[in-house]
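Ops channel
N.P.: pipeline sanity check, posting one input/output pair.
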């Protein structure tokens, strides 16, 4: 066992509901290793066939920006209008774009 106070490490769980959709964070769980985390995630978060794919990631391996960093982190993208799909006509029969 690793982690604090003899607990198993914490894993973050991401599930993809259907093909073509993104993985979405659905929760967290403790497990002894990656394989156990994957099996527990399947049992806990997809017991009613909610998903087609599961990702588990140790929480200590996740890096995230802070809400306080919002302006300096994301402001440079505002002047790059070519990155936004406003110049393209998207057909109505294209799902999940």
């Amino acid at each position: 066992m690793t982690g604090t106070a003899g607990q198993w490490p914490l894993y973050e769980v991401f599930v993809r509901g259907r093909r073509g959709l993104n993985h979405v964070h659905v929760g967290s769980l403790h497990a002894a290793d990656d394989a156990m985390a994957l099996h527990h995630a399947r049992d806990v978060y997809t017991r009613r066939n909610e998903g087609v794919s599961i990702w588990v990631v140790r929480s200590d391996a996740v890096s995230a920006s802070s809400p306080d960093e919002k302006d300096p982190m994301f402001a440079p993208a505002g002047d790059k209008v070519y990155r936004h799909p406003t110049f393209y006509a998207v057909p109505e029969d294209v799902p999940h774009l």
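N.P.: looks fine end to end. The first strand starts at residue 10 and ends at 16.
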